[in-house]
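Translate sequence into structure tokens.
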Amino acid sequence: MGKSNVALPDLPPAWNDTPGETSDGWPDFTLPDGQMLKEVIQQQRTDLQNAVDRAQSAPDALDGGLGYAAGHYLAMARPHGPIDFKNIFQGQGDPDRLGKAGNFAYYAIGSGILPDRMLDAGASAYNLYKTMIDPKKRHDVALSADASATAVRDAALAYGAALK
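Result follows.
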């Protein structure tokens, strides 16, 4: 299949589904409520890091707070949670862009705090959930992250790791 002659709109590189996407554009993405994605990421990262710090200082934290942090993170990343922009802003914007913004936030928030494999497992679990509730989705890819998450993964991990 050859390349399309249709020109992509003049958007930052992260909004074009091209290999090797960069974080350019995503942190400055404006959500339908006026918040910038980077603000949501920073707020959620700070909340997650505070939860980790509290858990690590607990005398009974045998795993360094990792289990507590993972639970806290999953509560944030749940369907209709604070970064499920596609559902939160349903009908208020392009669902594909909102989904990618949520996936970018998902990986950026956890980057450097939780292991990358744990983040990948969560993205895969979410895709499995979506596959189970939507009979039109392909079931042969249900056990891996969807294309939207995969497209922004590396750029979001790099962006998140650079945050304090």
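Note: The helical segments are 37-57, 66-77, 85-88, 95-110, 116-133, 147-161.
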